[in-house]
C-alpha cells in the first residue's frame, strides 16, 4: 500500500504543481498580452496539454487516490487512515472534480470561441478559470500534505 500512497502523492504533486504554475505566473503572463494573443495562446495550451504524459498523471492519480481512500476506509482503526482518507477525498474533489466540472467546460467554450470575440470572451474566461484554478490548486496542496502525513503516520 505504501507504494500506491507514494504514487498518489507523486501524481498529486505533479498535477497540483502544474496548476500552481498557472495560478502563480502563467495566467498572469497571458493576461498581460493583448486579448487575442492571450486567448490564442491559452487555446493552444489547452490543445497541447492533452498528451499521453499529462493524461497518465491526470487520470492515474485519481485512480490511485480512490484505491488509497478505499483502503483507508477498510482500515479505519489505523492512526493514519483518517489522514489518507481525507487526502484522497480532497484530491478527488479538488484537482480532479473541479477540473472536470468547471475548468474543462470553460476550456471547451474557449476552444469554440472566435478570436474576433476575444475582447469579451477572454477577460471573462480568465476570471472564471483562475478562480477555479486557485481553488483546485489550494485543495490539491492540502491533499498532498494529508497524504504525506498519512504515509509517515
Automatic annotation (TrEMBL):
Keyword Transcription among UniProt keywords: no
Key words of the record: Membrane, Transmembrane, Transmembrane helix
Protein's UniProt keywords contain tRNA processing: no
Domain of life of the native organism: Bacteria
Transmembrane segments: 6-28, 49-70, 82-102, 135-152
UniProt-recorded name of the protein: DUF1772 domain-containing protein
Organism phylogeny: Bacteria, Pseudomonadati, Planctomycetota, Planctomycetia, Planctomycetales
Amino acid at each position: 500500500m505504501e507504494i500506491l500512497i507514494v504514487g498518489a502523492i507523486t501524481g498529486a504533486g505533479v498535477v497540483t504543481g502544474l496548476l500552481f504554475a498557472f495560478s502563480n505566473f502563467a495566467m498572469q503572463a497571458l493576461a498581460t498580452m493583448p486579448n487575442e494573443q492571450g486567448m490564442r495562446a491559452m487555446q493552444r495550451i489547452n490543445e497541447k496539454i492533452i498528451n499521453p504524459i499529462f493524461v497518465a498523471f491526470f487520470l492515474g492519480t485519481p485512480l490511485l487516490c480512490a484505491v488509497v481512500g478505499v483502503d483507508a476506509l477498510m482500515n479505519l482503526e489505523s492512526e493514519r487512515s483518517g489522514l489518507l482518507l481525507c487526502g484522497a477525498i480532497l484530491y478527488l474533489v479538488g484537482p480532479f472534480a473541479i477540473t472536470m466540472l468547471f475548468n474543462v467546460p470553460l476550456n471547451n467554450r474557449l476552444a469554440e470561441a472566435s478570436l474576433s470575440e476575444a475582447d469579451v470572451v477572454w477577460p471573462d474566461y480568465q476570471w472564471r478559470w483562475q478562480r477555479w484554478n486557485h481553488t483546485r490548486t489550494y485543495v490539491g496542496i492540502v491533499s498532498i500534505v494529508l497524504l504525506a502525513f498519512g504515509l509517515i503516520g
